[in-house]
Amino acid sequence: MSAAAALPETPFEAQDESLLVSRLAAFDADAWRTVFDRYFTSVFRLAYVRTRHPGAAEDIAAETFAEAAAGIRRYRYRGVPFRAWLYRIARNLVSDHLKGERRRRRVPLDETGAEAETAPASEMRADLLAALDELTEDQKTAVILRLVDGYSLAEVARIMG
């Protein structure tokens, strides 16, 4: 993880984030571009690891930023970084997406005319995905933040609240 992606630790960095959020609330295009460039990849990864579908992950990441823009005036800094607020939005969108997927999966394949996918996966990958499925939503997010995004345990704790 790069130093630029680290959570605000100093009053100066927190002040920078506060200024950035003020600019976001004023719908400053440069500020939104900065936030998008800084966080899109992480939000996409969070969604991708949970959905295992690049198209869905991209849609969720885009919707995360759309919802952030719609709700930015309600955002209040409470000692938790702005990134944590974005991740919470993304986690909620992923949960909604997965609930919809579970409802769609209840329709038998023969009713839809679709055939089961037979894409082979390595045994290790299948085991890893099966293990991830056993975790709660918060546990999955913590694993993604720690092992995929490379945050320290303290950073994961701060992001997750």
Layout of helices and strands:
Blueprint lengths: L10 H15 L3 H23 L2 H18 L10 H24 L3 H4 L10 H11 L3 H12 L4 H8 L1
Helix pairs in contact: 2-3, 2-4, 2-7, 3-4, 7-8
What does this structure look like?
With 161 residues, this protein is mainly α. The chain is built from eight helices and no strands. It has one domain: Rna Polymerase Sigma Factor, Chain: A, CATH 1.10.1740. Helix content is 71%, strand content 0%. The N terminus is likely disordered.
Q: Return the average pLDDT rounded to an integer.
A: 79
- Give the amount of beta strand, in percent: under 5%
| Overall CATH class | Mainly Alpha
How do the SSEs run, as a string of H and E?
Answer: HHHHHHHH
Determine the CATH topology.
Answer: Rna Polymerase Sigma Factor, Chain: A
How many individual domains? 1
Helix- and strand-based class? mainly alpha
Give a short account of the largest sheet: none
Q: What is the terminal separation in angstroms?
A: 20 Å
Individual helix count: 8
* Rounded radius of gyration (Å): 18 Å
Looking at this protein, list some descriptive labels.
Rna Polymerase Sigma Factor, Chain: A, mainly alpha, disordered N terminus, 161 residues, 8 helices
